[in-house]
Fold:
Amino acid sequence: MPREIDEAWIEEAVRRYRRIESLQAEFDQAVDTVEVTVRSPDGLVEVVVTANGRITDVRFLGPLHHRHPREVANSVRAAVTAAADAALWAREKLHNETFAAYRPLAGA
Structure:
């Protein structure tokens, strides 16, 4: 017995697929451009990172000449670790905001 094709359901599925493609393009662009700034716990190092994890800037916020190289290295490592966490947070936030209105097709 042949099954009846629900044209309205197919049209809705195609429309939603196109919308999801559009939202995905917006999301991809946003993760490349949204930046988050973090600092090391001691406030010496500031790192700017995009939501896709690309570090765009590193700044030293205090003098380095009185600091031991190991102390500076620890500050850099802490700031880079915080930047990775911040990038993940930003990416998840963007994803939730971008796809908030998306809902699965009924009956799927």
Remarks:
- The beta strands are 35-39, 45-50, 55-60.
- The first strand starts at residue 35 and ends at 39.
- The first helix runs from residue 7 to 33.
- The two ends are 22 Å apart (CA to CA).
